[in-house]
Automatic annotation (TrEMBL):
Highest taxon of source: Eukaryota
Xref: PANTHER family: EUKARYOTIC TRANSLATION INITIATION FACTOR 3 -RELATED
A GO molecular function held by the record: translation initiation factor activity
Binding partners and assembly: Component of the eukaryotic translation initiation factor 3 (eIF-3) complex. The eIF-3 complex interacts with pix. Interacts with mxt.
Pfam families per record: eIF3h_C, JAB
Any single GO CC term annotated in Swiss-Prot or TrEMBL for this entry: eukaryotic translation initiation factor 3 complex
Name this polypeptide is given: Eukaryotic translation initiation factor 3 subunit H
Classification lineage: Eukaryota, Metazoa, Ecdysozoa, Arthropoda, Hexapoda
Organism: Microctonus aethiopoides
HAMAP family: eIF3h
Length: 337
């Protein structure tokens, strides 16, 4: 269980040395390209390494490269070291500052993500995980977010103490696992000039899909994913309730045996015989292992993420429907005149 000293130490720790993440436009485009290729080709999660450097209170991401797939012969660690050695030879930033992963409508919270970020952040203090949402970006909402583990989450994962008592002591919930770091995409002046020229070359009738009403499939996918997470959280709640019932039953059995042993010792005392010890009862009634609350915390955090996405998505969809209804009414009144 987390001690008072650990709790005091956590309150004195700084949340993060990094105030914001600055990502070069080229690195962001490489992340976007890799994530969309993996999602359209074989529906797998895209992952890769982030390269850059720390300047004062910001983390600059200047380059990135994808991780090798499982079917490739080279080991992942060997591949990363080889790529960084080659980048160093051509005078490119080769310092490892984190990793990135693709997501589908905010579906990124998982035990594997927590474990990977824990290993990154304990070995590289300034490292972040960048999440790119392919589904939302394909609907016209560019979503690139950076996260870091909180000091509480690092300490609890290190001690493997995601027990109810430890969570209650630290007053920790799913919202305390990660902290979001603002992301800024920066381009060079020449890139901004080229983008301005390309924007002028796009015809006015193209690139305007802001009133796209084909949103039923996206909303259905989000609701289906949230139902799956609710079912998972319900199963975890059933397991915890079963554990509580087992603890109560065990305590009742132990009290009954202790009462019986007390009666036996009273009878032996009347006969001037030595009392029987209670050690055998304590050995027979061993404590039941407390189920860890990490999986329920992740499921609750994922449900919260889906709820926020659905709320935002429904508000935008309703606004589009009201706009199209007004346009349709104006068109009908104009045609009738």
């Amino acid at each position: 269980m987390a001690s008072r000293g650990n709790l005091r130490r956590l309150t004195e720790m700084a949340e993060s040395r990094i105030d914001y993440v600055q990502c070069d436009g080229l690195a962001a485009m490489k992340i976007i390209k890799h994530c969309h290729e993996e999602s359209t080709r074989n529906m797998e999660v895209a992952q890769g390494a982030l390269l850059g450097l720390v300047v004062q209170n910001r983390l600059e991401i200047t380059n990135c490269f994808p991780f090798p797939k499982n079917d490739e012969l080279m080991e992942e660690e060997e591949y990363q070291l080889a790529v960084m050695r080659r980048l160093r030879r051509v005078n490119v930033d080769h310092f490892h500052v984190g990793w990135y992963q693709s997501a589908d409508v905010g579906n990124f919270l998982s035990p594997s993500l927590l474990e990977s970020q824990y290993h990154y952040q304990t070995s590289i203090e300034e490292s972040v995980v960048v999440i790119y949402d392919t589904a939302k970006s394909s609907r016209g909402f560019l979503t690139i977010k950076a996260y870091r583990l909180t000091p509480q989450a690092i300490m609890m994962y290190k001690d493997d103490e995601f027990t109810p008592d430890a969570l209650r002591t630290l007053k920790m919930g799913y919202e305390s696992l990660f902290v979001e770091i603002p992301v800024i995409i920066k381009n060079s002046n020449l890139t901004n000039i080229m983008m301005s020229e390309l924007e002028e070359m796009i015809p006015e009738e193209e690139g305007t899909k802001y009133l796209d009403l084909g949103t039923a499939s996206v909303l259905e996918n989000q609701l289906r994913c949230m139902m799956d997470r609710v079912d998972e959280l319900n199963q975890e709640a059933i397991k915890f309730n079963r554990y509580q019932h087992m603890v109560i039953r065990q305590q009742q059995d132990k009290n009954r045996l202790l009462a019986k042993r007390a009666q036996e010792n009273a009878a032996r005392a009347a006969k001037d015989e030595p009392p029987l010890p209670d050690d055998d009862i304590n050995r027979a009634m061993r404590p039941i292992a407390v189920p860890l609350r990490l999986i329920p915390m992740i499921a609750a955090g994922q449900i919260n993420t889906y709820s926020q996405h659905i709320s935002q998505f429904c508000a935008q969809s309703l606004a589009k429907l009201y706009i199209t209804q007004s346009l349709q009414s104006a068109k009908e009144s104009k045609s009738s005149n």
